[in-house]
Amino acid sequence: MKAILNRLELLSLAKAADSIAPNLAAMDALKGVLLEAADDGKVTVAATNLEVALERRMSAEILQPGQLVLNARLFADMLELLGGETVTISGEDGKRVEITSESAGYSIPALPAKSFPRMEIPFPEDTVPVTGIPAMARRTVFAVSENEAQPLMRCVNLIFTSEGLRAVGCDGSRLAAAKGDSKSEGSVSMLIPAASLGKLAHLIGNKDELYVGTTGKTVVFTKEDFVFSARLMEGNFIDADRMLASVKSGFTILTDAAALWEAVSSVTVVAGESNSFSLRFQEGRLTICCESENGSSSREMDVVPLAGTPSGEYWYNHRQLSDCLKALNGTLMLEVGQNGILLMRTDDLVCLQMSKRKPTVHVKAKSEKSTLPKAA
């Protein structure tokens, strides 16, 4: 293979590949980046960790078609250090590779290209268009479980319905259900690991149109000169519609999502290892309270009652609630249901947060040593 490429464009693709390729792997090829020069004047840059795979293409001057596999981290670092507008890559599969620019050059070994695992790509007629994947990822991945013993709850449920695209994340104590592209119709439900969906969201623009298809065990997102695949999980996921419908609203208020998030953030600066965080409702007022070994803090804000009579005090995990509020935007309809279940709704996102038991205050009695006069 021999090709002349734009250095900065290639560096961008190499960094994306390096973010996919693992630093530690049983197979050396998995730590590598595949460069494939074709007769059509394009060079493919690919990487995989067997969970996700990425392929990007760029225009280049192809002097000799071929394939090379190089260490991904080393390749990106060399392109960063090389000066000049263009870079020339020349070498044979499994042998030495010369990487040169206008003022400097490197000579490094190449790995056998045949050992690099390539992804399967579905036929174009088996794909559907979709937009807004990054926005949906931001509104759902925060709600997935961090427990490795719960692999299904570490996934986002991507659902294609007749009314459009939906995404659901749940960790057992909170749930986030986001609306997506209304033009993406179908009847497909797939479980995508949240980490994989987050990587995809990082690589594309929020308004980029992608084509989505499956190859059985993987989901593949494609657009011009871009292919990304992720391994799908198998199993039964929580029925979000049923769970949301089971909440019996006691009262409903109207507020602003950003204002409530800012208020919660300001109060919880005193949160510590053992803390008490609550929302206290009284007609048109909401009081946010937090107490811990670091101190106590509270803040009041006006709200608009919509249904029922707002009243009572309810306790929540302040970190989880803050994550939910941060994902919500605009006018917020907040409902309190049975056992303090909190429903937060905006136009494109619904969050459910389970309440906690009222914390028990333990008072430690100080032991005092009695001082008695010594006997004469």
Question: Can you put this structure into words, describing what you see?
Answer:
The chain has 376 residues and is of the alpha+beta class. The chain has 3 domains: 2-115, DNA Polymerase III, Chain A, domain 2 (Roll), CATH 3.10.150.10; 124-240, DNA Polymerase III, Chain A, domain 2 (Roll), CATH 3.10.150.10; 247-353, Roll (DNA Polymerase III, Chain A, domain 2), CATH 3.10.150. The protein is 18% helix and 40% strand. The strands form 4 sheets. The protein has a 9-stranded antiparallel beta sheet with strand order 14-11-12-13-26-25-24-18-22. The protein has an 8-stranded antiparallel beta sheet with strand order 6-2-3-4-17-16-15-10. A 5-stranded antiparallel beta sheet has the order 5-1-7-8-9. The termini are far apart.
Task: Summarize the structure in short.
This protein is of the alpha+beta class. The chain has seven helices and 26 strands.
What are the salient characteristics of this protein?
DNA Polymerase III, Chain A, domain 2; 3 domains; 376 residues; disordered C terminus; 7 helices; 40% strand; alpha+beta
Summarize the helices and strands and which ones pair or pack.
Layout: E1 2-6, H1 7-20, E2 32-37, E3 42-48, E4 52-59, E5 61-64, E6 66-71, H2 72-81, E7 86-91, E8 96-100, E9 105-109, E10 128-130, H3 133-138, E11 155-161, E12 164-170, E13 174-179, E14 188-193, H4 194-203, E15 210-214, E16 218-223, E17 226-231, H5 240-245, E18 251-256, H6 257-267, E19 275-282, E20 285-292, E21 295-302, E22 304-307, E23 311-315, H7 318-327, E24 331-336, E25 342-345, E26 349-353
Antiparallel strand pairs: 1-5, 1-7, 2-3, 2-6, 3-4, 4-17, 7-8, 8-9, 10-15, 11-12, 11-14, 12-13, 13-26, 15-16, 16-17, 18-22, 18-24, 19-20, 19-23, 20-21, 24-25, 25-26
Helix pairs in contact: 1-2, 6-7
